[in-house]
Specification:
Blueprint (H helix, E strand, L loop, with lengths): L3 E7 L6 H11 L4 E6 L6 H7 L3 E4 L5 H11 L4 E5 L10 H7 L5 E11 L6 H18 L10 E5 H4 L11 H11 L4 E8 L10 H16 L2
Parallel strand pairs: 1-2, 1-4, 2-3, 5-7
Antiparallel strand pairs: 4-6, 5-6
Amino acid sequence: MVSISVLLPTLNEGQNIEKVIREVRSVLPGSEIVVIDGLSTDRTVEIAKSLGARIILEKQKGKGVAIKRAFNEVDSDLILMIDADLTYPVKEMPHFIELLKEYDVIMGSRFKGRFEEGSMPFINGIGNRIICLWASALFLKSVSDICTGMWGFRKKAYKSIVISAQTFELECNMFAQAVKKGLKIIEVPITYSRRGGESKVRLIDGVKDCVLLLKERFKP
């Protein structure tokens, strides 16, 4: 029996977490749900715990720090990672699981799929495309949506990826590591919905993405 864990990094997602967990349970009923929480001040942890999720409390700030810890502490055959803000299609998770029979890393591409109206500000879309062009040129590997918040990994992949990112550079870090380690990667079209709550991503995060990619490219 293949073991599956679904990682949900959270910070004050109290208004969304219940719906996300219930959706995951409906499409992957046998999976472990792991909430990695960065010291939320709302009811995120309380709600997740009441729904049977495994809770990892991370005192250091940053999505990168949270996922690094999860990769170290989780030991499932397959891992799916998804943002807990209702923007990504949980219903596509079984498709990701099927693809992980053949691929090491799955990336959900919003740009190969479609955007719900109002789901991404114009400037964010431009920024993402610039980062993708930068990453594609540096690593000689075409990528259409490097900042996606929906991923799938085989165990050999997530256990080999070295995470140095602290915050939202995480996705660029994972892509760079996957390419450098010769992992088999595929992008899958997904639909991106309007989020519940305020986005935590800022312009400076795009600059950090580009810097991290450059460092990863020339790091031994």
